[in-house]
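Tokenised fold entry reproduced for absentees:

. . .
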Amino acid sequence: MAGGYATRLWPITKTKPKPLLPLGKKTIIDLIYEKIRKFGYPIYVSTNKRFENDFKKWAKDKDARLIIEETLKEEEKLGAVRALGEIAKDLDDELFVIAGDNLFSFNLEDMLKFYKTKKSAITALYDVGDVELAKRYGVAEIDNDRIVRFYEKPEKPPSTLVGIGIYILNREAVDYLVEYTDSGEKRDNLGDFLSYLCQKTEVYGYPFTNGNWYDVGNADSYIEALKFYIEYDIGYIEVDRIVKIIPPVVIEDGCVIRGRSMIGPYAYIGKNCYIENSDVSESVIFDDVVLRKAKLWRSIIDEKCEIRNLELSGSIIGGHAKIQRGEL
């Protein structure tokens, strides 16, 4: 499921789909794809018309088919449940559903085994370990393995086990999904559908206890995911001898780094960037960016920006921006 418009990461995701954001040399959806292709199931990526060409480029060397939702902006989108309902009508089969912005270090084999023993709808759960944090998500009330009820962003969570955008729907659950979307019920959040499904049939939770999970919903969670997944990789670049590069970092081809610059740790630098006397750490910089006497920390800079004499912390800068101030 990759049809959202990721408004919390705007302006970056106005021109780039969130599942295709880099986490080093790989993108978010690359990591999901690698985890599921081993099972040999047909893989479908549901996205929108706005980002169709981006996903076509991604899918060229992948064993995956695209399903295109005919929307171009946030106000037009079908919503996750309705989009999935339309897919269910066409595929008419069991569905293994994963949110396209969902990052997790654990394997899915045991969840599949659990599904085969239960033969009922399954949703993956993760213990966030904090009641206040659980309020941001869909929360499961569990009786043994069965989900008694699913609460979407509750004021008083019954547990800290949250849904993490991974579902296995048997044929009965798929039929209920189609019924639900045709009925005009709440359509945007899959948690609402799970609440409905719990009233109709047995739904089980599968808690993952080993590994990490990242909901890449905002800049902070994106940077944290980058820190976990990034590896050390440097392309064909020009670097002055006094430049310091602190792994892990990824620096793409064509970059020029001059002067007393310090890159890393946890930095992604896109292609053809020019960096002079600047520090970059825990940040993502897209292609063709110019930095002169800049200091960046936990920031995201879109393509073709130019930043001079500036310190940025926790910032998101949209493409083609030129920002400068007096000498540092």
Observations:
- The domain at 232-324 is CATH 2.160.10.10 (UDP N-Acetylglucosamine Acyltransferase; domain 1).
- The longest helix spans residues 80-91.
